[in-house]
Write a structure and sequence with these properties.
about 55 residues, 2 helices
Protein backbone atom coordinates (compact mmCIF):
# COMPACT_ATOMS: atom_id res chain seq x y z
CA UNK A 1 0.00 0.00 0.00
CA UNK A 2 1.32 3.43 -0.87
CA UNK A 3 1.95 5.83 1.99
CA UNK A 4 2.34 9.61 1.68
CA UNK A 5 4.83 9.51 4.56
CA UNK A 6 7.11 7.14 2.62
CA UNK A 7 9.55 9.28 0.61
CA UNK A 8 9.48 6.69 -2.21
CA UNK A 9 5.78 7.42 -2.76
CA UNK A 10 5.71 11.16 -2.04
CA UNK A 11 6.45 12.26 -5.60
CA UNK A 12 3.68 10.06 -6.98
CA UNK A 13 1.19 11.80 -4.65
CA UNK A 14 2.48 15.31 -5.28
CA UNK A 15 2.88 15.26 -9.10
CA UNK A 16 -0.87 15.41 -9.87
CA UNK A 17 -1.32 18.19 -7.30
CA UNK A 18 1.48 20.20 -8.91
CA UNK A 19 -0.36 20.04 -12.24
CA UNK A 20 -3.50 21.70 -10.84
CA UNK A 21 -4.35 25.31 -11.62
CA UNK A 22 -7.42 27.49 -10.98
CA UNK A 23 -8.85 26.51 -14.39
CA UNK A 24 -8.51 22.74 -13.87
CA UNK A 25 -11.79 20.94 -14.49
CA UNK A 26 -12.96 17.97 -12.40
CA UNK A 27 -12.85 14.56 -14.06
CA UNK A 28 -15.85 13.61 -11.90
CA UNK A 29 -17.80 15.25 -9.11
CA UNK A 30 -18.58 18.92 -8.59
CA UNK A 31 -15.73 20.34 -6.50
CA UNK A 32 -13.47 23.01 -7.91
CA UNK A 33 -9.71 22.92 -7.29
CA UNK A 34 -9.84 24.93 -4.06
CA UNK A 35 -12.63 22.79 -2.62
CA UNK A 36 -10.85 19.54 -3.50
CA UNK A 37 -7.55 20.69 -1.99
CA UNK A 38 -9.35 21.70 1.22
CA UNK A 39 -11.14 18.33 1.27
CA UNK A 40 -7.91 16.38 0.79
CA UNK A 41 -5.93 18.43 3.29
CA UNK A 42 -8.55 17.89 6.01
CA UNK A 43 -8.15 14.11 5.68
CA UNK A 44 -4.39 14.52 5.75
CA UNK A 45 -4.70 16.59 8.94
CA UNK A 46 -6.78 13.83 10.52
CA UNK A 47 -4.23 11.17 9.53
CA UNK A 48 -1.37 13.22 10.96
CA UNK A 49 -3.24 13.97 14.21
CA UNK A 50 -3.70 17.71 13.64
CA UNK A 51 -7.51 17.52 13.38
CA UNK A 52 -9.98 15.35 15.25
CA UNK A 53 -13.33 14.66 13.56
CA UNK A 54 -16.51 14.93 15.61
CA UNK A 55 -18.20 11.70 16.58
CA UNK A 56 -21.58 11.12 14.96
CA UNK A 57 -24.48 9.67 16.88
Amino acid sequence: MKNILNHLHTEEFLNPIDKLNPNSQPKWGRMDVAQMLAHCSSFQDIALGFLFPQEVG
